[in-house]
Design the sequence.
């Protein structure tokens, strides 16, 4: 990612360049005026341009139009003061945002905004509104922030789009729509998508004072009254997505092992406690890396961590797309084969065992040959809970170790 700063104040440009390079690890070029900036885009392609509004050779904000029209690059405008006329002109042009140069926090906000724009390139937003004019207006605002925007003319179409495009992260929905209105849409969406999966912002030009509370009580993250100003819309969207990122981060910390990124024991039990009753179509594979203590004692815990990380990576590559892979602690892992009987689970696990044993692990201590032992237990009608099934898998694991390790026992 390469960024251009157009700023005649050398101190400001140096501070911004330092913060951008330090936080985002990007390349940054500096131009002191428009004539200097004009020569640079021919040499480089810029992700975003951060430009001072009043430059020596462009005193009335001409740089913004140049960046947007000629460079066709998002523009963040800096200014020490901004009157109402300039503000409206800049927003009409379609800048990404403007920042008043007041203190260090202003420059930190620029860095945060650039990082958010970079993230937005990978974020899909669905706009549901029966008004074409309103829908297109919201779409334009979102595209200025580099979002990928999908559209729906009512709640029913929005549900179809969400089902067909599961990686949508934000839904912006109007209240008054035919077929399925905003409230009903949110209720249906929340039946399938949690707050970790999808954020929702409600919109309405209705004057009912209770709408905002009703939207949020029904499952929306935020609400905006139409008509709204550009800045408020952008701030609400960015704050909602920042909150979504934070919720996801907290969820990851609670449900993912910090080292291997496999699921935790807690998540495993939450997901599969009820699957034990599905006798014959649910099996567990309890895994223990052979002689792992020897790896730590001989090569140190850093190499041991590398082995654990690589082993978990191979487990997830082999089974993670269809089954749950969790780390129970130390060198012990478990795979939940939901939908498989014991024989099929044994077959795929034994094939994986052979692959692991035949492909050395690359570590700081060189290539290490790693094997594992595994006990597999299939759900029976006599199993009362997940613990009883795990106990039987543990007995099979013990049998595999007693038989010389590097074995799978069903």
Sequence:
């Amino acid at each position: 990612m390469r960024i251009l700063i157009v700023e005649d104040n050398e101190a400001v440009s140096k501070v911004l360049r330092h913060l951008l390079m330090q936080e985002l690890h990007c390349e940054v070029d500096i131009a002191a005026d428009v004539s200097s900036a004009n020569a640079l885009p021919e040499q480089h392609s810029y992700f975003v341009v951060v430009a001072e509004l009043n430059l020596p050779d462009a005193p009335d904000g001409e740089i913004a139009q140049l960046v947007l029209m000629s460079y066709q690059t998002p523009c963040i405008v800096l200014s020490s003061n901004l009157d109402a006329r300039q503000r409206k002109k800049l927003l009409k042009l379609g800048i990404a945002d403007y920042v008043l140069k007041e203190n260090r926090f202003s420059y930190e906000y620029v860095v945060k905004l650039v990082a958010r724009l970079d993230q937005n390139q990978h974020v899909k937003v669905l706009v549901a509104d029966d008004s074409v004019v309103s829908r297109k207006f919201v779409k334009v605002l979102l595209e200025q922030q580099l979002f990928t925007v999908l559209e729906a003319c009512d709640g029913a179409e929005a549900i179809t789009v969400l089902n067909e495009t599961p990686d949508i992260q934000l839904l912006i929905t109007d209240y008054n729509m035919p077929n399925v209105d905003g409230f009903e849409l949110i209720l249906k969406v929340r039946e399938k998508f949690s707050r970790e999966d999808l954020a929702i912002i409600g919109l309405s030009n209705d004057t009912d004072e209770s709408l905002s509370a009703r939207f949020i009580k029904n499952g929306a993250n935020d609400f905006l009254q139409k008509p709204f100003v550009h800045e408020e819309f952008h701030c609400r969207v960015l704050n909602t997505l920042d909150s979504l990122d934070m919720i996801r981060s907290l969820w990851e910390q609670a449900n993912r092992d910090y080292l291997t990124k496999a699921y935790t024991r807690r998540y495993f039990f939450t997901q599969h406690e009820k699957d034990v009753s599905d006798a014959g179509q649910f099996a567990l594979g309890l895994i223990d890396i052979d002689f792992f203590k020897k790896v730590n004692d001989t090569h140190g815990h850093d190499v041991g961590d590398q082995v654990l990380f690589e082993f978990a990576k191979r487990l997830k590559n082999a089974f993670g797309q269809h089954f749950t892979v969790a780390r129970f602690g130390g060198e012990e892992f478990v795979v939940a084969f939901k939908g498989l009987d014991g024989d099929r689970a044994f077959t795929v696990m034994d094939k994986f065992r052979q692959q692991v044993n035949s492909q050395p692990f690359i570590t700081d201590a060189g290539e290490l040959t790693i094997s594992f032992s595994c006990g597999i237990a299939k759900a029976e009608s006599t199993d009362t809970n997940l613990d009883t099934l795990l106990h039987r898998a543990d007995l099979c694991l013990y049998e595999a170790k007693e038989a010389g390790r590097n074995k799978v026992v069903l």
Notes: The domain at 265-409 is CATH 3.30.70.270 (Alpha-Beta Plaits).
